[in-house]
Amino acid sequence: MPEKQDIGIIRELAAQVSEIAAMPVQEEKRKLWRRLNGLKPVRPMVMIDQNCWNEMNVNGELTLHCINAECRGYEQYLRRILFQWEHFPVDMVIENFIGVPGAIYNTDFGIESRYEKLETDPDNPVVSRRYFNQFQNEGDLEKIRMPRIIHDETETARRLSAAHELFDGLLKVRFRGVDPYLSLWDPISSWMGVENALYTLIDRPDFMHRLVGRMTDGYLSMLDQLEEQGLLCEPQSVIHCTGAYTDELPAPGYNPKKPRTKDIWMFGLAQMFATVSPGMFKEFEVEYTSRICERFGLVYYGCCDPLDRKMNEVRMIPNVRKVSMSPWADQERGAREIGQDFVFSRKPNPAFVATDRLDVELIRKDLQATRDICKKYGCPLEFILKDISTVRYHPENLFKWAEIAMEVARG
Length: 411
Hints:
By secondary structure, this protein is of the alpha/beta class. The protein has helices at 4-21, 24-37, 69-87, 153-167, 185-192, 194-203, 205-228, 278-293, 311-314, 331-338, 360-377, 395-410; strands spanning 45-48, 97-101, 104-106, 115-118, 128-131, 149-151, 172-176, 238-239, 242-243, 265-268, 298-301, 320-325, 343-346, 381-385. The strands form five sheets. The chain has a six-stranded parallel β-sheet with strand order 1-14-13-12-11-10, sandwiched between helices. Strands 2-7 form a two-stranded parallel ribbon. Strands 3-6 form a two-stranded antiparallel ribbon.
């Protein structure tokens, strides 16, 4: 059981979040996200995510004081919300509920990555890894097991009961089901290593088809199990670091006690395919991920992979609404290919904030160039600053980027 002191800390933080969540600006921002996601934007939207929190603790605002491990998890979550709202809110929305993750376990594919690790900052979870190839012959394909979903209902009930004790009267308590992350090639790259996987695509394409086909079947089985057991998440507030508010989801016939894949967003990506041809991208990614994406209501596609030369193939993926335009994309070509059909999800280069001396004019020029290009081609636009592995212990860099980005977005 939580200590009385822990309960007091959590309720004090929750009260602050509740007060902010009640502000009219939260619904104003939801409306702006709905307009953008409906491809009728009022203005570009801005988000910051995947932050280097280990470098952010200004004046002890992120220091944890709870003793109980469960309370510390909630405390960290609430302190980060409050910190971001204070220092770099951009277009984040503060919700009036707390999501309690269900005790849902996935056996996954039964494979653990094997790697060597190199750390440069012991306080930073972003590290370098060299993966060892575990798929070198036909027999290795048998390592891939079909995922099995297991729900510990007793533990879920305990978690919900504890959350009610902490948050009742301040924030609503919601069961949080599974928000699927179904990349095919991110796991493969960690099982084989990117270089090994790319060579095998060329040297043994049939082998790779069997590997990715087996994974696709596993993911589809996993989704069936989640639907049958009512363990999928509700319609999301965020999908892959971007606002997910939309008037199009959930789909007709929605039952909140048994969400379906067609009621929610998913995101897909094939980052290790950055250097492959559009034809290979279609053959090994589009043909397989389409079987997954067709089940969902809407899809955010891409991450760090430059997709400006692969939009013909991206258009073949069902239900895509947002397309990532990474720092390595040709923005002019990407905007021309996207037009008004998708949201141009720009990922500004996080290296711009990883400096000892911030180049304010470089940041403004970069953001304005994107806005000008998207205006030229009529692209709905969002700026998503993410993958921020460091700000060189200068959190003010991030605060200033946020300020500039909102000035550019508001035009």
